[in-house]
Amino acid sequence: MPLRRSLSARTYSFDFTFDAPQRLDGPDTTVQMGTCRAPGGRQVAFQVGNEVPTEAEGLKIFAGSRLDPFFIGFVGVTVTEATEKLGFRSDASNVLEGLNVLSIVLEVDAAVLGPAAGSLVSVVGETMTSGGRPVRLERMGRPEIKNVVMSPKKFDTVNSDLEIRDLFNEEDAFSVRPDYAGAYRARLNANLAFYDGLDGKTAWPLDELGAHPLTELLLADFLVVDLSKPLSEDGCFEIETALLAGRPHTTCGGRSLNDDIVDTLFTLLVGGIDGKRISDGVDQPTQPATRSFPYLNAPNPTSPDLGARLAAQMPPREEAA
Question: Given this model, what pLDDT does residue 7 score?
Fold first, then answer.
């Protein structure tokens, strides 16, 4: 699981690998170890699930099950796509309420990155196979680019039969392959135009070639963080929107765990820069993230079944359509 921070033309990788769990003192007791390889080759060993974080020079590490910090009115997102109208409700439920997620939490002192030309850092996380030819299985940069922005197929007249997210997952976030770049642009242009029209207005006029103003920005799918600016819990997309508006940004950007990023994303896509706030009806996670490492809350001992919850919450097919 590499976490890469790119600073100017330099790349810093933090690679996490995990050993197979080992049984100790009977079948009900297992221990799993992992290793973080920091820039320069330094290796830091840690134990999965250890509530005492591993600390090394300039690093803090935790890995294990935690309460999922994400929150989303998933039914409203699905209904919006199906009906082609904003389908959010004020009484929406967080589909991830009470669920757990396997987590890797890494805190890095900026000094570990060494001297650099500026304070802007781009960040991306990747899950890759180990051994032989590595295969990128999953990649995360900005929130919900794949599962919301790129997911619908029906608006894309070029690639309507293509599950493009699988291909996009395989991409290096800092160097998209030219082979599929045209397909990604076609999907983004089509879907971004759809989202823009949900309020009956045009916030993002397409250019003469049909390109959406946000396509190139979102195609570069990584978080942007300014180490010289203060943290804001609602700073997601603040650097990007400031750039588009031609004004200086005021926060460190990135993505706070408590940031209502689904509202921020739909507000940007539908209403444009400084558009009227759009809410998916879910405003907070199961429990707000804490201010101390590892920031994520302890796991729920009775985590519900996500599949059963989706089946219970999703409206009948004819109603969604």
Answer: 47
Low-confidence residues in the chain, pLDDT < 70:
1-9, 26-27, 114-118, 316-321
Name 172's Cβ contacts closer than 8 Å, sequence gap at least 6.
136
Q: What are phi and psi of 196, to 5 degrees?
A: -60, -35
Question: What is the 3-state composition of the chain as percent helix, strand, coil, each rounded to the nearest 5?
Answer: 25, 20, 50
Question: Angle 296-4-295 (CA atoms, 0-180°, nearest 5)?
Answer: 10
List CB contacts of 292: < 8 A, sequence separation 6 or more: none
Amino acid at 111: A
Is residue 319 classed as helix, strand or coil in its secondary structure? Answer: helix
Q: How far apart are the first and last CA of the chain?
A: 39
CA distance 75 to 6: 36
**Res 119: pLDDT:** 85
Residue with token string 């460190």: 252
DSSP single-letter state for residue 257: T
